[in-house]
Design a protein that fits this description.
57 residues, 0% strand, mainly alpha
């Protein structure tokens, strides 16, 4: 059982090592856009969690 789990974690580690460095170069505006998109998505998730909590009370 543990061998199967360990093998799966090794596969995940191998995939993470393979894709740890991006293969394409991004310009500064693209990096900023992605950063803003991440912030926006975190904000939306925060709003959803806040709405869920306020609906419970």
């Amino acid at each position: 059982m543990w061998k199967i789990v360990r093998r799966q974690f090794e596969k995940i580690g191998e995939i993470n090592r393979k894709y740890s460095k991006p293969r394409i170069e991004m310009s500064a505006p693209v990096r900023w856009s992605l950063l803003l998109l991440r912030c926006y998505l975190l904000f939306l998730v925060g709003l959803m969690i806040f709405r869920f909590i306020t609906l419970l009370h």
